[in-house]
Amino acid sequence: MAKWKVQITNRAEADLRKLLLNGEVTKADVKVLLRWLDEMEEFGPDFIGQSYEWHDHELKGNWQGFRSSAFSKTGRVI
């Protein structure tokens, strides 16, 4: 059972579907996102933050209070 819960908004889900249909996001990208989601829900933000794979960091400015986990040069989860 998951220890953490990742909330995916309706807008985020719709945007991801649109990007997938347009070819801007690949099925491989979706697999990586699902792996991030599984790891976040199982192990939590401290694990993700310490993982070299996710390049996780706090955001500043208007995004202060949020985190970004990058899985490629252009792919990230906020």
Order of helices and strands: HHHEEE
Report the structural category: mainly alpha
Instruction: Give the overall silhouette.
Output: globular
Q: Low-confidence runs (pLDDT<50, min 5 residues)?
A: none
Mean of residue pLDDT values: 92
Helix proportion range: 40-55%
Amount of beta strand: 5-15%
Count of individual helical segments: 3
Order of strands across the main sheet: 1-2-3
Record field, number of beta strands: 3
Radius of gyration: 13 Å
Largest sheet: 3 strands, antiparallel
Q: How many angstroms does the end-to-end distance come to? A: 23 Å
Topology:
Blueprint: H1 10-22, H2 27-43, H3 45-50, E1 57-58, E2 67-70, E3 76-77
Antiparallel strand pairs: 1-2, 2-3
